Amino acid sequence: MRSTSRGNGSRIGLESAGAPARSSPIDETRLKELLQAIRDGYLPVDDALERLRHLPYEDLGFASLDHHRALRKGFPEVVLGQGKTPEQAATIAERLVASSDRLLVTRADIEMYRAVKERLPDAVYHAPARAVTLDRSKEPRRPGVAVCCAGTSDVPVAEEAAVTAQLMGSAVDRMFDVGVAGLHRLLDKLERLRAAKALVVVAGMEGALPSVVAGLVAAPVIAVPTSIGYGASFGGLAPLLAMLNACAAGVAVVNIDNGFGAGYLAAVINRQSWGTTEG
Questions:
Q1: Contacts of 173 (CB under 8 A, 6+ apart)
Q2: 189 plus 205 within the same structural domain
Q3: Which CATH number covers residue 200?
């Protein structure tokens, strides 16, 4: 790889002539640097064009990668591992990391992680969350997200939410096994609950915990029903309906077992509360 030094000491990476096209991380800061380098004469237009060639998306045949998403949304495309082969997930992950400094693969088993790690040695596996992450951003994590779950059986979904929010730049306060069957466990953490700017509350069974938490705090509560429970729980349908009918105000509900969606939303709320908007 070649690089062009600018007068201010920053460096704009370029591809070697004849080498396979591999995009550099594309976010707003790097795009501005690229445009400034063209303006100041440090970067030839043809080289800049090659750098931007994969900006809209990259077609792998079995997947079309949205390299533009980090610029629009403030976070790169996330890979759902479920339904993909380890080799497919690893190929997608490798190409995404060529254009981003963060990676998240959800619903990944250990075999999928090993395939990803073979190509990306600094990838990390979060077993409870069934997630693979990679973070080269060195972005500081800002406090403001709390993740609570009713029972230990709900931890995998809660951890998926926590890992997602962390990768998006939030420091996460975890409070697990604080369900309504022992309400004193939740009330003992009231100060921590009220310090959060966004709360993810995960519960199966009858799904009562988000409504209770929402009645105690001023921040928005993102409720996550889980598929944990006996027969009439209907695989999470009972807590889903309970959360949709929450009496307390300020509750938003995501799909059954969707820890990723809840963690993502909590991180966006926290980011905006710190004065940083998306995209």
A1: 143, 145, 146, 147, 192, 195, 196
A2: yes
A3: 3.40.50.1970
* DSSP structure string for 230-259: SGGGGGGHHHHHHHHT-SSSSEEE--TT-H
> Residues in the chain, how many?
279
Q: In one letter, which amino acid is 175?
A: M
Is residue 167 located within the same domain as residue 249? yes
Residue 215 scores a pLDDT above 60: yes
Same domain, 158 and 268: yes
Helix, strand, or coil here: 147? Answer: strand
Q: Could you list the residue range(s) of the whole structural domain that residue 170 is in?
A: 142-272
8 A C-beta contact, residue 88 and residue 62: yes
Are residues 250 and 129 located together in one domain of the fold?
no
pLDDT of residue 138: 82
Amino acid at 146: A
Same domain, 251 and 224: yes
pLDDT value, residue 228: 94
pLDDT for res 18: 35
Give the residue ranges of DSSP H helices in the chain: 28-39, 45-52, 69-73, 86-97, 110-119, 155-167, 183-187, 190-195, 209-214, 237-244, 259-273
Mean residue pLDDT of the chain comes to 85
Residues 165 and 205 in one domain: yes
Domain stops at, among 81, 114, 135 = 135
pLDDT tens digits along 28-80: 666 777 788 888 888 888 777 666 665 667 667 777 667 767 777 778 888 99
SS3 call for 30: helix
